[in-house]
């Protein structure tokens, strides 16, 4: 009788998993790649890398291939576009996202806290509606919106043989959104930042998987499996299901990320933002010196929906002392929705 090898079983599992989520309808949720300084430096090509404490966000199954202990604190921001006014001084659709992160991870357990604030400004149309990405010359009014999300998570994983890890992040999410209509002259992202929405608390679940095939890793992540809803009326929103897959090839052995890594990521679902729908494809790489005292990374991501928009990212890590790293990342390019920066301090042993 034919007996399939474990690597073949892993590939069949991932093909089945990916096909089951590839045709999910577009999601109304926060962008998935706002978190993680290393991830941002690689343009979001991190689902199959995810070996630091941000694995609790990117793919909790990646913790199994990470250090024995990893902790980090990070901060970042993205603004799109650079100006919330056109050259003529009229308001245009714009958004600002600020993130704060604290996470601790062991190979089989992770604890995390993530805070996101997303502020938006959208010109009103003549009918009082807003259109993502719309520039409304001479708009008399704008709609300001603020979304605040605090997520507390606990991640656990389970190995299935020597090639496959399945993991999940059980999370409590306190979130809410509120909006205001203001005059076009007075409305701004700074004003939107000042809106403090009331919040609700709901439980959520993220599920990830990682297959290790020699020096290659294949990762799949599905966020917001239960699609929790918050708020009511015009300010209601849903953290909709979002699926992403990635692959990485590294110089490390037995699935451990080594001194040189290349990776690719692809969204399997779309995300609706103030600047329009997006579905991203990303490619990135990371390289370390022999002593791991200094690392560099870079990457490119492309929005594959509508007008092709490209983001270019780069980042560095420097050892403050053994096991303690300062991380930084910058993103620019024609995809203004990805422009931003991230800084972090990471401890790993």
């Amino acid at each position: 009788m034919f007996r399939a090898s474990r690597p073949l079983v892993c590939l069949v599992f991932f093909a089945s998993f990916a096909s089951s989520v590839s045709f999910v309808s577009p999601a109304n949720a926060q962008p998935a790649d706002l978190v993680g300084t290393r991830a941002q430096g690689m343009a979001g090509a991190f689902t199959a890398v995810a070996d630091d404490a941000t694995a609790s966000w990117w793919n909790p199954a990646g913790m199994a291939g990470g250090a024995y202990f990893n902790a980090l604190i990070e901060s970042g921001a993205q603004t799109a576009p650079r100006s919330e006014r056109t050259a003529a001084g009229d308001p245009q659709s714009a958004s600002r996202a600020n993130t704060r992160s604290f996470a601790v991870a062991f190979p089989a357990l992770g604890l995390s806290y993530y805070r996101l604030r997303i502020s938006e400004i959208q010109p009103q149309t003549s009918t009082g509606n807003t259109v993502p990405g719309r520039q409304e010359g001479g708009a008399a009014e704008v709609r300001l919106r603020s979304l605040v999300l605090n997520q507390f998570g606990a991640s656990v994983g389970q190995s299935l043989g020597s090639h496959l890890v399945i993991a999940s992040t059980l999370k409590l999410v306190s979130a809410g959104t509120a909006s205001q209509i203001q005059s076009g002259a007075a409305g701004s992202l700074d004003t939107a930042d000042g809106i403090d929405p009331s919040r609700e608390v709901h439980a959520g679940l993220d599920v990830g998987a990682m297959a290790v095939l020699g020096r290659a890793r294949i990762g799949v992540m599905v966020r917001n499996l239960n699609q929790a809803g918050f708020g009511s009326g015009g300010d209601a929103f849903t953290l909709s299901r979002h699926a992403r897959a990635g692959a990485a090839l590294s110089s490390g052995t037995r699935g451990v990320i080594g001194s040189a890594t290349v990776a690719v990521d692809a969204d399997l679902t779309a995300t609706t933002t103030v600047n329009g729908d997006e579905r991203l494809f990303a490619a990135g790489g990371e390289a370390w010196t022999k002593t791991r005292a200094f690392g560099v990374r870079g990457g490119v991501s492309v929005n594959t929906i509508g007008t092709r928009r490209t983001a270019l990212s780069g980042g560095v890590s420097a050892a403050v002392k053994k096991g303690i790293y300062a991380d930084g990342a910058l993103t620019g390019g024609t995809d203004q929705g990805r422009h931003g920066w991230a800084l972090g301090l990471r401890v790993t042993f």
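Residues 1-5, 8-16, 18-29, 131-137 have pLDDT under 50 and may be disordered. The chain has four helices and 18 strands.
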